[in-house]
Amino acid sequence: MTSVAGPPPTGGSPTSAAAYADSFAVESPAMAAARHRAVTAATELGTALPVEPAVGAALAVLAAGGDARSVVSLGSGGGVAGLWLLEGMRRDGVLTSLDGDPAEQRAARRAFTEAGVPSGRTRMIFGTPGEVLPRLSPGAYDLVTCASPPLEYSGHLAGLLGLIRRGGSLVCLGLLADGRIADRAARDEQTVAWREIARTLREDETLTCAVLPVGTGLLVATKRT
Ligand SMILES: C[S@@+](CC[C@H](N)C(=O)[O-])C[C@H]1O[C@@H](n2cnc3c(N)ncnc32)[C@H](O)[C@@H]1O
Questions:
Q1: Ligand 1 atom nearest 148 alpha carbon
Q2: According to the UniProt entry, where is the signal peptide (predicted)?
């Protein structure tokens, strides 16, 4: 095949593209402060990192696009993702924020308070999916986001999907982290759990699914109406 010399590519590297997407997503001072605390905790205590700004903005878009009034956030962390969700939700919407770590729940509550979120707009629930899911109303939620490690909720996928109304979405965060899901040789438990979640959602004919390669990735599954 003859190659044709052309102008040098003008596109940036994937890294600069990701940096652009993050810089496009302008965070409020409260989000930036919550991010700083969460990153500090991750560095000093080994807790999980918050979502990247571009992922937060994508969550806000999904919440706004679905006119979300009732949202579940599994894995509150330091509240960064929660603040983005609240940004996209209806102003009378309620975010139900779950976490199994009391320190993370306190951090998320602090983030919401410092952002001036009215107390009636958040419902903080302590516990694991197995403990909390039975307390939530089936079909009552517009959007459910999962930020905890996949093994922590892969056994509860049916229950999580059951929470969502038709037209609503399940969003699983982080499946592209480290690129292991694309590496056939990777067989660690978390990667296997990711593959199972992805396969289950894609094979479910009641759902329309996509992987959004933003930050560490979003797996979005929307219930057909
Ligand atoms: C990556 S962090 C979430 C960060 C959040 N998305 C943000 O941007 O601020 C994951 C959270 O999941 C929580 N988690 C992990 N396993 C859990 C489980 N089995 N039940 C409930 N929460 C869990 C952790 O305590 C942690 O706060």
A1: 12
A2: none
Q: Summarize pLDDT for 104-150 with one digit per residue, the tens.
A: 999 999 999 999 999 999 999 999 999 999 999 999 999 999 999 99
> Measuring from each residue's beta carbon to the nearest atom of ligand 1, which residues come in under 6 Å?
38, 48, 50-51, 75-81, 98-101, 104, 128-129, 147-149, 152
Q: Please tell me whether the overall predicted TM-score, pTM, comes out greater than 0.90 for this model.
A: yes
Edge-to-edge, what's the strand order for the sheet holding 207-212? 122-126, 94-99, 70-74, 141-146, 164-173, 218-223, 207-212
| Cα–Cα dist 192/172, whole Å | 15
- What residue owns the CA closest to ligand 1's atom 13? 75
Single out the residue of 94, 143, 87, 81 nearest to residue 120, CA to CA.
94
34 Cα nearest atom in ligand 1: 9
pLDDT tens track for 68-108: 999 999 999 999 999 999 999 999 999 999 999 999 999 99
Conformation bin of residue 120: beta by default, left when phi > 0, alpha when psi is -120 to 50 = alpha
Atom of ligand 1 nearest to the CA of 49: 1
Domains of the chain by start residue, with CATH? 51-223 (3.40.50.150)
Residue 131 and residue 125: Cα distance in Å, rounded? 10
Lookup result for tokens 């899911």? 133
